[in-house]
């Protein structure tokens, strides 16, 4: 028997308020198969799906799911099925699920699948419990079968960040793509080098040791210094002597 979803209070976020903005470049572009798409438009829809699930951080040729793409092009699966296939793929599991704890992974999936930020830590806790009890497949299915997902995106629309731009504010919500794919817990598990790492020079002269009078006095070779100065004085004296002799002869 699975544990029911923990109750949490949905806040009045901007994504829950109907917007009346005039569509523009700052508004999210909606990709859907409601209308008959050509080959080029289908390519853009597939690219938008990768960008929504993988973000720019994981959009590599080796992460493409060509079998799912062919099924979507042939009309054998819906956009929702394609999104599900991307989330449960080995690439997404290895680079996102394995490198995060349940709380952070639940937050990432809510952002990318439901198109909004988490309401609170209690919501992260609720969905992390689902992830722990039902596993990755059950967790993803619950998100994609939720009333929130179906009412906003249905079966034929690629999820997007809902109402990121707010006209009454100078700056809206930042894109979810700004969030790194792994948290500090995963970063702390990485091996630490046993030798000190020298910082790279930030300028042309930062790689040299800073000059101080104390270091110069203690490190200078004064014997060679005085010898060099004496030779220079002799050379200058000879030059002056030859200059005066030349004036007397030709003067």
Task: Describe it.
This protein has helices at residues 39-54, 66-73, 79-87, 90-97, 102-114, 121-144, 147-152, 184-188, 213-219, 222-250. With 251 residues, the protein is an all-alpha fold. It has two domains: 14-188, serine acetyltransferase, domain 1; 213-250. Helix 1 (39-54) packs parallel to helix 3. The longest helix is centred in the C-terminal third of the chain and has 29 residues, at 222-250. The model has no long low-confidence stretch (mean pLDDT 79).
What layout of secondary structure does this protein have?
Layout: H1 39-54, H2 66-73, H3 79-87, H4 90-97, H5 102-114, H6 121-144, H7 147-152, H8 184-188, H9 213-219, H10 222-250
Helix pairs in contact: 1-3, 5-6
Characteristic key phrases:
elongated, single chain, 10 helices, serine acetyltransferase, domain 1, 251 residues, 50% helix, 2 domains, mainly alpha
Written as H for each helix and E for each strand, in order along the chain, the element string is HHHHHHHHHH
Q: Total helix count?
A: 10
Helix content: 40-55%
Strand content: under 5%
From the coordinates shown, what is the CATH architecture of the largest domain? Orthogonal Bundle
Number of domains: 2
Main sheet summary: none
- CATH level 1 name of the largest domain: Mainly Alpha
Mean pLDDT: 79
Low-pLDDT regions:
none
Shape: elongated
